[in-house]
Amino acid sequence: MSQTATTPSPATETAPTSAVSVDGLVKNYGEVEAVRGIEFDVASGEIFGFLGPNGAGKSTTINMLCTLVRPSGGTARVAGHDVVSERDDVRRNIGLVFQDTTLDGYLTAEQNLRLHAELYGVPREMVGERMRQVTEMVGLWDRRGSLVNTFSGGMKRRLEIARGLLHSPRVLFLDEPTVGLDPQTRSSIWRYIRELKTREDITIFLTTHYMDEAEYCDRIAIMDQGRIIVLDTPAALKAEVGKDRVQIQTDDDQAAIAGLREHFDIDATVAEGAVTFGVPEGGQFVPRLFDEWNPDLPAIRSVSVARPSLDDVFMAHTGTTIRDAESGQTDTRRNFARMMNR
Amino acid sequence: MATETTAPLGAPQLPNGRPPAAQPGTPHEIARVRVPTRSLRSELRAIKVVWKRELIRFSRDRLRILTSLTQPFLFLFVLGTGLSRLASAGTHGVNLRTFVYPGVLCMAVMFTAMFSAASLVWDREFGFLREMMVAPVRRSSLVLGKCLGGATVASFQGVIVLCLAGLVGVPYAAGLIVEVFALQLLLAFAITAFGVMVAARITQMQSFMALMQMAIMPMYFLSGALFPVSGLPQWLAILNRLDPLTYAVDPMRRAVFAHLKISAAARHALDPGVTWWSWHVPSLVEAAVVAALGLLMLTIAIVQFSRAE
User: Fold this and answer.
1) What is the ipTM of this complex?
2) Would the CB atoms of B130 and A68 count as touching at under 8 Å?
3) pLDDT recorded at residue B53
4) CB–CB contact B33 A1 (8 Å)
């Protein structure tokens, strides 16, 4: 990264498109396979999200990428450097915000930032200016003299984001950046993340198990049980599910279901107190529904159309919802599914 | 190492030679910092900042400064005064407080050093250790900074006890102060290194404290901090000679007694000096023993932290 004899081969420096490049990455803890051979690329400047329930292997993967955990197999390059053989080069080029705070509560915000600047060797003459920029961005400039212990959870997280940016990393890793925060703070954290993309030349790699947050990402990888199940843009993933969810309310649900089968060749069921079914283009289907609705059928009192959510995507690929996967019902559900398929 | 350590200001450029993402219309341009490659200078900066953090934290914690002085005060003034009537027959007219003074000074230093090392366990628990572990610096720099910080803080505590010398009949002689200061600095470093070595493995505060107490208390009682080391029963003499702390207390006591005007009999009884098979071990050798052990434990601590993920 600078003109020194110790700089690794120039080839590693010319990887303008991939900020993160992973190939066959594996991590075993004894018998437990936490990550079972994953591969993906993250382009420079992307906001890339890792989505999955707790225990899916997201944190293990992120820890391998930021050189905290040694892979059991496979390779990973971050900012053009190998995470095993060029550990220091990787570390200089990444910023980290962990799930749990890593601030020193007995120091002030400014002291925490200065300590970071010293550890990362940020040139002294730049520390003051850079510190001002990053703390202003997260709205903590005025509080820089306060002890971190006096900060709320949201302020701590914001300070950690500022600290992670202090040394101008090329890739910022955010491990569950909004977990445990109230909705308002969550949305402000997301505002910073998206602002960042326009202000700095940076790639953002984050993990989350909030479906609604995954929508903010340019691309997401859904991870479950140590594997990447699917990887694409949120829109493409949802399009892949294919069907919008249409719900209609009638006075006689059974007659409506029979009518749908007879006239529209659609299988519907009653869910959430309404006749529910899936069609490829919900918006276009509704006018047709009314045009062709037989007057003998019970009158439709209301219609709602919902685009597929990432919940539907997760469901389509794993056969379970992320919430059920979290609450540990995954295995029983899977066993049940296996039983049914037999 | 000829490393370019300062980034050219105002000429932000990415490592791969691409121009920086100029964002016209953004609220304010953010200066891109270039982090230099690792060099001796960056390691020294890391050592210094870890050291400085210990000092900042210690200065914030006034309560700790006070509480860690209670024990030495109790030993020096309460125990020293109370027992002096019992012990007067054996001390040849020397005040017992004067006799235990070097031992008490060691105690003050030891406990402070131990608490400094213990903060590493907190650092792990509260996550801050992770911030240090992912930094692009050698783990040895972090461990060294921590040990130096602990040693500095502990010897500050020692200086407070050193100031009390006059109250227990120890003269304020320049040579004495320098020698005692140097010895307690060495002890502080060795004990911090010991604590850091233990903290590398022990991740829970309760276990750490229990283990340290278990190590420190016997070490302290066996060391001769509270009794002369000659004429002991053989089992105690052996344990005393094996105790590393013996070699910190003894030279300190010698330094103190060298500046006292007392009878030869008293000197012989109270400051016999440590012997190995009747060889009188010189102070310098004793100090070297402490230094060697300190360095050994520092090395073990560094190896352990370098291995840790």
Assistant:
1) 0.78
2) yes
3) 93
4) no
pLDDT, tens digit, for every residue of A137-159?
888 999 999 999 999 888 999 99
8 Å CB contact of A119 and B133:
no
Kind of pairing between the strands at A18-29 and A32-43:
antiparallel
Do A338 and A331 contact (CB within 8 A), yes or no? no
Beta carbons of A111 and B56 less than 8 angstroms apart: yes
Closest CA to A82 of A138, A179, A11: A11
Residue of B nearest to A13 (CA): B16
Rounded to an integer, what distance in angstroms lies between the CA atom of residue A137 and that of residue A132? 8
Given a cut of 80, whether residue A121 has pLDDT beyond it is: yes
Nearest Cα of chain A lies from the Cα of B138 at a distance, in angstroms, of 9
Q: Which residues pair with A227 in a beta bridge?
A: A224
**B37 with A66: Cβ contact below 8 A:** no
Task: Write out pLDDT tens, residues B205-240.
Answer: 889 989 888 888 899 999 888 888 877 888 988 898
Nearest to A19 by CA among B130, B6, B128, B21: B21
**Angle made by CA atoms A249, A252, A258, in degrees to the nearest 5:** 95
Backbone angles phi, psi at B239, to 5 degrees: -60, -40
Chain centroid to Cα A18, Å, comes to 18
d(CA A6, CA B253): 51
In 3D, which of A59, A61, A40, A50 has the Cα closest to residue A222? A50
- Please name the residue ranges forming H helices in chain B: 40-60, 62-73, 80-87, 96-125, 128-133, 139-163, 174-201, 205-222, 234-242, 246-258, 264-270, 283-307
In the block, which residue shows the tokens 């829109």?
A235
Q: Is the pLDDT of residue B149 over 90?
A: yes
Closest Cβ opposite residue A96 in set B1, B27, B134: B134
- Interatomic CA distance for residues A131 and A129, integer angstroms: 5
Cβ pair B195, B149 in contact under 8 A: no
pLDDT surpassing 80 at residue B19: no
